[in-house]
Specification:
There is one protein chain. About 40% of the residues are buried. The radius of gyration is 14 Å and the shape is globular. The protein is of the alpha/beta class and about 150 residues long. It is built from seven helices and five strands; from the N terminus they run H-H-E-H-E-H-E-H-E-H-E-H. About 45% of the residues lie in helices and about 15% in strands.
């Protein structure tokens, strides 16, 4: 498991904007709104992490405080930490749905968002029934994802 604090990286938004164009339109209204927001990221895809982490930092000073690449790593970390959690569904070992289900016993202020490329209606329903607070498609709902983070910062 990787536990890292990420600094703000201004150039990342421009680069991430080429992957997710909606980020550039979101930047102006989100700067400072997520200040102090700490996020635990469950994502096994390095390329996605390389874009998402700096985008979160640049858009609103959110800090990814830890990363897990598998269901087992995520659950081990979650057992000892509180905060806001972002979960992908397909992991190198296990799956994000198991992580979301494990989070059922979390405190009311703790939030779980699923951010995935596998955004079928059946999967959305399964994640929400398993206890996710929100479900977002990485390719079409990033702006809504950032709004979710802002609303609960």
């Amino acid at each position: 498991m990787t536990v890292t604090s990420y600094p703000r990286i201004s150039e990342a938004l421009t680069h991430a904007g080429t992957i997710w164009p909606s980020l550039t339109s979101t930047k102006n209204k989100t700067v400072n709104a997520m200040a102090g927001l700490s996020v635990f990221l469950v994502e096994d895809n390095q390329k996605i992490r390389d874009h998402l982490i700096p985008a979160l930092a640049d858009l609103g000073s959110a800090s990814v405080i830890a990363i897990a690449q598998s269901e087992r790593e995520a659950i081990a970390w979650l057992a000892h930490h509180k905060g806001k959690w972002v979960v992908d569904l397909f992991l190198e070992e296990g799956n994000g749905l198991g992580v979301v289900d494990w989070c059922r016993g979390r405190e009311p202020h703790q939030r779980v968002a699923v951010l995935t490329n596998y955004a079928t209606q059946a999967m959305r329903k399964a994640c929400l029934e398993a206890g996710a607070d929100a479900f977002f498609d990485k390719s079409t709902e990033l702006e809504a994802f950032f709004e979710f983070c802002l609303d609960r910062a």
